[in-house]
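Quick start: read one record
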Amino acid sequence: MPETRQDPIHDVPAGLPRLLQIMRRLRDPDTGCPWDIEQDFASIAPYTIEEAYEVADAIERDQMGELEGELGDLLLQVVFHAQMAEEKDIFTFDSVAERVAQKMISRHPHIFAGENRDKSAEQQTVDWEQIKAAERANSQDTRVLDGVAMGLPALMRAVKLQNRAARVGFDWPDAANVLDKIAEETAELVEARNELTQAEVEEEYGDLLFVMANLGRHLELDPEQALRDANAKFTRRFNAVEDALAAQGRTPQESNLAELDALWDQAKIREKTAR
């Protein structure tokens, strides 16, 4: 029986050293995995975003067992990008880790530079933003809105853009003004739907969504979280509708809108009563 040669990867210390070595092997142009070798920053970026959302999903569902695996998947994305960069002599995993370490030190002077630690969370947030602004001033980001990542979810990016503009005074005084703007944008959307092209309808719809995000800011809530909660509520109630129909041996496709609406209202009442 031929002797099986153990792969030397098993001799590498467990944890991060082994993961880094595995990625080097996968990307080896002669002996690596064809799929991994073919990838580049752009092709891997969607997976990075997806893994970040899966981390958030495990936290949202309080699945700590899953969270360990999802964090590992997210770490793999960092290792993958760092390996591709190292191959091009751009940066390394160690330089990535050192850069974020230095950032944490510079942004926490009350911990690492002997400043007064007795600050409220609100004051620490103000200080954090001031330090970030100083960092942007020393970079190539010269405009107020520079540096807000294009790849963020649109709703999240809208809030970040609005927060940046608000710092220089470009903001409504209170939520009442935003509600007036929502009424205005809603009327413009109705007009566009009746009279304008589909592209113009889309533009007006986008304007309305943007103002809705701004309302969330003024109500001191996270629009992204509010929409996630609304998605979860819709899912729960629609599942209850399906369950009620299944108890009768039917599916939603075998029902009609009036019956679906009635079952939805029942699910809504049960959910509110159970609170």
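The domain at 140-221 is CATH 1.10.287.1080 (Helix Hairpins).
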